[in-house]
Specification:
Number of helices: 6
Radius of gyration: 32 Å
Largest sheet: 17 strands, antiparallel
Shape: globular
Length: about 575
């Protein structure tokens, strides 16, 4: 084994940024410990660097460059990686970048209407190969978006004007004819019927070709969860009447799946959940899912809560972007302030406006028996839940940028035991990561809830809002904030407002530190009025360890302010960010 004492870069004509690009692309600079590296590895890395560094110089418009990589004064290109020297003490990378060319003439023709070429492909800009490639791709993509699926480069002329240090570029395109979608041919499906695959894909045969429609078709197929992989391929030959056939190759997932989860906190105890899923119930990518959850095990939240549910989803029921669903759920909640036993059924539709926006509309029948500070009661109601969700997070499991919004309004008609009214909720989240290293992220959340119509005493117990615990205000006891009606009795409020903020600092490849603060408001009126409600707050620190299924979360929080002068601390452990 030999040792390298020093690795140097000599490139005086390059800027600091360009030198940084060289170091980033270099395989030699990527070796973490030169002192213990084998000479064979150093020689192999150096030989690979000639081409890698030349590509960086081309990207910056340098042509005719000279690259020298020497090991103890000997050019690495003359050394065989199979018979390296026994010892290497110094490696020097020397670069004479040659002449930096800039674009002179920069033409691509013909261009479709409203084509936007990148600013890097313009007269006077550094003659970057990637800029030329990006400009050509942008021109072709614009033609394809207008239906010209076979648009292609037919010729290019690149002339270097050495006296003027200009690179003149002339690219010729052939947009080809405007095409329409032809027949979609499906292969690879075994258990899902071909007719249903065509319905789910929703590719508009006979319409003008669009790569956007191909992307949407891929999204619809993935959304079902029934397929492991889907590949849409444009056929090489143009069909009769300027049509273009599309081939779809699918690989199906195993039809059955099960999973489980858990979360524990010092106040709320242990929560365990599990599900069983069938992804292709009747051969049309229908989903049947059974869920069960037990929470409050060993906690100080009243008693154990139990939820059982079954849900059926059928994709592409009314059109390719509208699914039908039906569900039934039974629930028993034994909370500190109330006990409820409820059964509900619901049918509805889910409309996917885009891959990031979806809407739901349902019809729900509920019947329940409850006990709280106002006494026992039973009720039956008919609700019309309407929801909208906007998910523009860059990562659903561990977001660092973007935003998320979930809005739900449910007018309900009291069939017995409860007046009619409206229950509304909103969950808003935003994420921001400044700088380029991605090590610091700010996250914020606002939750809003309201029940309008029934008075406080007439509202079903499980429709009212509480604050405190892992989902609202960490550091405060679970559902510790409600409406005090006297006599030591507390019920939920008709108005809720929750505010949370986190600062997440990445300290390693998988480890992050988090500081957070939460606040919650509960009021007895339908909307916060500034006089009838109360606030409490909490703050703390946490650890996150990134895994393939989301970060493992450990939070320790203490109360900051509350009407009852709470003290102590709470610990929360789970999978996924708090929000």
């Amino acid at each position: 084994m030999a040792h390298a004492a020093e690795l140097r870069l000599t490139a005086p004509r390059l800027t600091e940024d360009q030198q940084a690009q060289i170091r980033s692309a270099s395989t030699l600079f990527a070796i973490e410990d030169l002192q213990t590296a084998k000479t064979q590895d150093l020689v192999a890395a150096g030989l690979a660097d000639y081409e890698r560094l030349l590509s960086v110089l081309y990207e910056n418009g340098f042509f005719g460059s000279e690259i020298s990589i020497r090991a103890d004064g000997r050019e690495l290109a003359s050394i065989s990686a199979l018979t390296p020297p026994r010892r290497i003490d110094n490696v020097t990378i020397s670069i004479k970048p040659g002449t930096q060319f800039r674009f002179g003439k920069s033409d691509i023709a013909p261009l479709a209407f409203a084509t936007e070429l990148p600013e890097t492909f313009a007269t006077g800009a550094p003659a970057s190969i990637s800029a030329l490639r990006d400009a050509s791709d942008a021109a072709i993509l614009r033609w394809r978006n207008l239906g010209h699926a076979k648009a292609a480069i037919t010729g290019q002329e690149i002339v270097a004007d050495h006296p003027k240090k200009r690179l003149n570029v002339d690219v010729s395109l052939d947009p080809g004819p405007r095409l329409r979608f032809g027949k979609l041919t499906v292969s690879g499906n075994e258990d899902v019927r071909t007719r249903r695959v065509l319905q789910i894909t929703g590719l508009p045969e006979g319409r003008v070709f669009s790569p956007i429609e191909l992307e949407r078709a891929q999204t619809r197929l993935r959304r079902t969860g029934t397929f492991k992989s889907t590949v849409l391929t444009e056929q090489d030959e143009i069909g009769p009447g300027n049509t273009l056939g599309i081939d779809l190759q699918v690989v199906e997932n195993l039809p059955r799946r099960f999973g489980f989860g858990g979360e524990i906190s010092t106040q709320e105890g242990l929560t365990v959940s599990g599900y069983w899923l069938h992804r292709n119930l009747f051969g049309g990518a229908e989903r049947l899912r059974f869920d069960g959850e037990v929470s409050g095990i060993g906690g100080n939240t009243g008693g154990e809560d139990l939820t059982l549910s079954v849900r059926f989803d059928r994709p592409a029921t009314f059109n390719e972007d509208t699914d039908f669903y039906a569900l039934a759920e039974a629930e028993r909640r034994d909370e500190i302030s109330f006990l409820t036993r409820k059964f509900a059924t619901e049918i509805g539709i889910r409309r996917y406006a885009t891959s990031k926006r979806e809407y739901t509309f349902g019809l729900r029948l509920e019947t329940a028996e409850t006990e709280d500070a106002f006494g026992p009661r039973s009720y039956t109601l008919l609700a019309v839940p309407v929801g909208a969700q906007f998910d523009y997070r860059n990562n659903r499991l561990d977001a660092t940028s973007g935003y998320f919004a979930n809005l739900r309004i449910a007018p309900f008609y009291g069939l017995s035991g409860v007046p009619s009214g409206v229950r509304s909720t909103a969950d808003l989240r935003a994420y921001y990561t400044p700088g380029g290293d991605g090590n610091l992220t700010f996250a914020a959340r606002a939750q809003v809830g309201s029940v309008a119509g029934p008075s406080l005493s007439e509202t079903p117990s499980d429709y009212l809002f509480y604050s405190g615990g892992g989902g609202t205000v960490r550091g405060q006891g679970y559902q510790s904030l409600g409406v005090d009606i006297g006599g030591g009795n507390t019920v939920g409020g008709r108005a809720f407002l929750g505010l949370s903020g986190e600062v997440r600092v990445k300290t390693g490849e998988n480890l992050s530190l988090v500081g957070f603060a939460d606040a919650g408001y509960i009021g007895q009126e339908a909307f916060p009025d500034g006089s009838s409600g109360r606030w409490h707050s909490g703050a703390g620190v946490g650890l996150r360890y990134a895994t393939g299924i989301g970060p493992i979360r450990l939070d320790v929080a203490v109360p900051v302010s509350s009407p009852d002068n709470a003290s102590g601390f709470e610990i929360y452990l789970g999978i996924g960010q708090a929000f």
